[in-house]
Amino acid sequence: MSAIIHGAGAATALTTFNSKKLVAPCRTNLPARSKRCIVVAGSDDASKSFGSSSVLSVRRPQKLIANAVATKTDTSATTGHELLLFEALQEGLEEEMDRDPHVCVMGEDVGHYGGSYKVTKGLADKFGDLRVLDTPICENAFTGMGIGAAMTGLRPVIEGMNMGFLLLAFNQISNNCGMLHYTSGGQFTIPVVIRGPGGVGRQLGAEHSQRLESYFQSIPGIQMVACSTPYNAKGLMKAAIRSENPVILFEHVLLYNLKEKIPDDDYICNLEEAEMVRPGEHITILTYSRMRYHVMQAAKTLVNKGYDPEVIDIRSLKPFDLYTIGNSVKKTHRVLIVEECMRTGGIGASLTAAINENFHDYLDAPVMCLSSQDVPTPYAGTLEEWTVVQPAQIVTAVEQLCQ
Amino acid sequence: MALSRLSLRSNNPFLKPTATSLPPSTRRHVSTDTTPITIETAAPFTSHQCDAPSRSVSTSSAEILSFFRDMARMRRMEIAADSLYKAKMIRGFCHLYDGQEALAVGMEAAITRRDAIITSYRDHCTFLGRGGELVDAFSELMGRKRGCSDGKGGSMHFYKKDASFYGGHGIVGAQIPLGCGLAFAQKYSKEENVTFVLYGDGAANQGQLFEALNIAALWDLPAILVCENNHYGMGTATWRSAKSPAYFKRGDYVPGLKVDGMDVLAVKQACKFAKEHALKNGPIILEMDTYRYHGHSMSDPGSTYRTRDEVSGVRQVRDPIERVRKLLLSHDIATEKELKDMEKEVRKEVDDAVAQAKECPTPEASELFTNMYVKDCGVESFGADRKELKVTLP
């Protein structure tokens, strides 16, 4: 079965950014370029899109938007079908399960219930109980089971109902999942995918609003990716399943209902690659997962004010795509990182260190990192809003950096 | 398995001189006699929620001799490892299995190489039982490239994929869910194989054991959980760590069997029984009553929490190798001298392996980064300035 790889713009980053030529089949840039002119002119038509997806809120730009709401996408030139993000994940999962009988799913309520976020809906009826396993509530045990099964050649997709619950399986993920390939001298590969929703939702409380990417990022041997649009959700899910390495796929509770048109053909996204959401010249904004939408919202305001931010969705949290990021830094010389992770020891902290180490000479200003506050997420709605980074803060930070 | 190995060995030059030096009046072609004989186990089995297997074990002279040889080799290997550790050629942790050899050997006699075994950090002898080479074991212990895990694992991380030996795990109890995963994969692929998940009396108090038991029983996984009860969880005796030291009963709804782990024939019988049971009815717990002569690891003298009299008492009364020796002598399968010669050969074998391993080189510096990730889909992307964007799907 042939498939197309959609590079996420790295090839274009090499060429001058005025070029309309495409070096590789690259889906993301061309529509953005043609629309960029319209945006600069100040239109705040909510249905126009930046880059490959459009998930702008329909509300007024000035109001504090605490959550991203799906809107209809515009019709782009490519043929495809429209679906929501959780459906994209399901489609990716189903296609991989059809393709390879070794792929199986295990998690709490993934089978008959259809998954707590409907990502595995219908799969149990289609593939049976052994391939879509409803486990009892024992994260440590079923994560370990998935890893043990992977040692023999199965490709389990382990779902944590909420990423926070995977803390109970941390030993299995860190010691067995990450290390077995190395300590066995390459005898065993662990092709698992560990996925689940995380992030700050709508007043879910502290324990259900955790960002585990910071805890997992130091584990040697695993790969981490974060999806943010239906397009990259399906692509990353498929790539993660096909990968021989253990991959942790971070989804976000609030992004499951995003709608987008995705191609009909079989595609995967490169696991180690960042996505160029909006090319620009003045400043590089690095983000991932839900903060992408806050950044894009802030970008609208910034563009109105005359700034030209380059927005990159880093997607790959481990390893970082320093190539794309580096090319961007060399172009803009200013970096702002916007993330939902905790300030202390988060992804932003590591990324700041990596950028400073590698691209120090290219920076005109210190790398600025906007992260969530180092507090357990409070229940009260207003407090919760202030825990995460808001578009207004992003605008202020950019203005500060670009002085 | 043991029988075929022995017939191979009967051709090996080491045994030939022994056989020919015997006066013709005494019996046999001891090494090739495979006629079945039946021997009773010394102690009965105690069962929980199932019928105990019979005490009569069917075996053969060849097999018992192979038991002796294998156990002697394991014992020698552990003692050699002890000296190497004291000579600082082995560093870090070194958990020795001497005293418990009957378990590794008896289990192998009952199963095939397609059945999986997964164990904890006390894995040297299990590795050997699965067909691992002495040189590979010593190289790994000394951190050489020739080692079974390329020198990157160490004492606690021996693996042998082609023999379905899944290691070798340092965190107490973490191998139990892994083992249930192996059993799940066997059920998924519809193979008629089982998984033996070994853990100790210390790990028997881990929550993940009960989580895994629940899952295994719920889905009828062909998992056999073997509790190697050597009565001490590092420095803590079982009566101080477990409210209910009847580990075979702790499965509650899962049947259990208590076995004298120092009697290799009893172990063989129990494992055979367990394999048949697991393929039909799902998980079963085997509690092997065994004993380790060394301390928990080489840094533990092993005498602060138990008396030397206790250790020597067990060595006199229950030592697995002595038991088999008595069996061989009483059944007239071998003479005292033959067995001593066999032990000498084994000792030489081990010494040669140690010498060979000492000559092996350590891993190169570049090996630090190999086997971190598997190169995948043809994609190579890493670092700030090295990236190829060529991706080819499988």
TrEMBL record, chain A:
Keywords: Chloroplast, Metal-binding, Oxidoreductase, Plastid, Potassium, Pyruvate, Thiamine pyrophosphate, Transit peptide
Matches recorded under Pfam families: Transket_pyr, Transketolase_C
Subcellular location(s) per record: Plastid, Chloroplast
Catalytic activity, EC: 1.2.4.1
Cofactor entry: thiamine diphosphate
Transketolase-like pyrimidine-binding domain span: 83-258
Keyword S-adenosyl-L-methionine in record: no
Molecular function GO terms recorded: metal ion binding; pyruvate dehydrogenase (acetyl-transferring) activity
Uppermost EC category: oxidoreductase
Catalytic activity: N(6)-[(R)-lipoyl]-L-lysyl-[protein] + pyruvate + H(+) = N(6)-[(R)-S(8)-acetyldihydrolipoyl]-L-lysyl-[protein] + CO2
GO cellular component, one term: chloroplast
Role according to the record: The pyruvate dehydrogenase complex catalyzes the overall conversion of pyruvate to acetyl-CoA and CO(2). It contains multiple copies of three enzymatic components: pyruvate dehydrogenase (E1), dihydrolipoamide acetyltransferase (E2) and lipoamide dehydrogenase (E3).
Subunit and partners: Tetramer of 2 alpha and 2 beta subunits.
Identification of the protein by name: pyruvate dehydrogenase (acetyl-transferring)
Organism field: Brassica carinata
Phylogenetic lineage: Eukaryota, Viridiplantae, Streptophyta, Embryophyta, Tracheophyta
UniProtKB/TrEMBL annotation, chain B:
EC number: 1.2.4.1
The keyword Oxidoreductase appears for this protein: yes
Keywords assigned: Oxidoreductase, Pyruvate, Thiamine pyrophosphate
Name of the top EC class for this enzyme: oxidoreductase
Pfam families with a match to the protein in the record: E1_dh
Domain Dehydrogenase E1 component, chain residue ranges per copy: 69-365
Catalytic activity of the protein: N(6)-[(R)-lipoyl]-L-lysyl-[protein] + pyruvate + H(+) = N(6)-[(R)-S(8)-acetyldihydrolipoyl]-L-lysyl-[protein] + CO2
Biological role: The pyruvate dehydrogenase complex catalyzes the overall conversion of pyruvate to acetyl-CoA and CO(2). It contains multiple copies of three enzymatic components: pyruvate dehydrogenase (E1), dihydrolipoamide acetyltransferase (E2) and lipoamide dehydrogenase (E3).
Name of the molecule in the record: Pyruvate dehydrogenase E1 component subunit alpha
Organism from which the protein derives: Brassica carinata (Ethiopian mustard)
